[in-house]
Amino acid sequence: MLQIRVIAPAELTESVLELCRHTPGVAHVVVHRGAAVEPAGDLVAVDVARESADRMVGRLKALGLTDDGAITLEALGTVLSKAGFRADDEAEGDGADAVLWDELLARTREESSLSVTFLAFLCIARLLAAVGVLTDSAVTVVGAMVVGPEFGPLAALAVALVRRRAALARRAAAALLIGFPLAMVLTGVATLGFEALGWVALTSTRNLEQVDFIFQVGPFSFVVALLAGAAGMLSLVSAKSAALVGVFISVTTVPAAGFAVVAATVGDWDIAAYSVLQLMVNLIGIVAAGVVVLAAHRRLHDA
Hints:
Layout (H helix, E strand, L loop, with lengths): L1 E7 L4 H9 L4 E12 L2 E9 L1 H13 L2 H4 L1 E6 L6 H9 L10 H11 L4 H19 L3 H10 L3 H13 L2 H31 L22 H19 L5 H8 L2 H13 L3 H34 L1
Antiparallel strand pairs: 1-3, 1-4, 2-3
């Protein structure tokens, strides 16, 4: 279940309570009159089944509470109450299949921000990928996959396309279009530094055996990207974040970018081109799958 807390102007409190009474899946309604200071008003807290939360939030927004008050959502752990069990039974559908669109928009907006932290993780992931290529170490490449933060902007692009949010699309595109080239330039400088120091003596990427899968583009490259994108989006909408680790390990966005840089430094321009193609295939596949998953959820929700 989720807890929805509402700060409502005094004149809207009864409308909020009436909404709670007539929405299936609602339990444990608490009112604190005059408790809110900024913005001023009453505080209403209500527990609601996840499958009813999106409808509830939509109706609260229709009352104008985002302008004159506030709406916050918080996931609850274990809820022991007959009223809570009854609310779960009354709610239509399954909580694992419910999409909270406002929560999803907020999460993807935050994770697609071109922040210092995002750039740091992206650069670290690219450097790990480059080291994995330079040392022909598949384990290091897998580590780079896990560290890479690029799924956030890709998920945000999918959400923006389905919900038609131009601002979110621009934010996600900026994170990708600025972050990727910047991280690749830094990786190139570091790679040249490693070679100048004599730490590596790589003269060609054509003889690598453990990591050559990175630049080998084939039909399964797109299939894997689609499956990974679908799994990633399902993990976001169902709040099952553990599945994201498998998503990160299954796609080769970070390794492809790192491989392209290393190949370019040794003059293997065809390999670098194949790596960039692999990168694009993965990016497009992940976003496309995310759009399909969200569109299916939206159709089911509106049906």
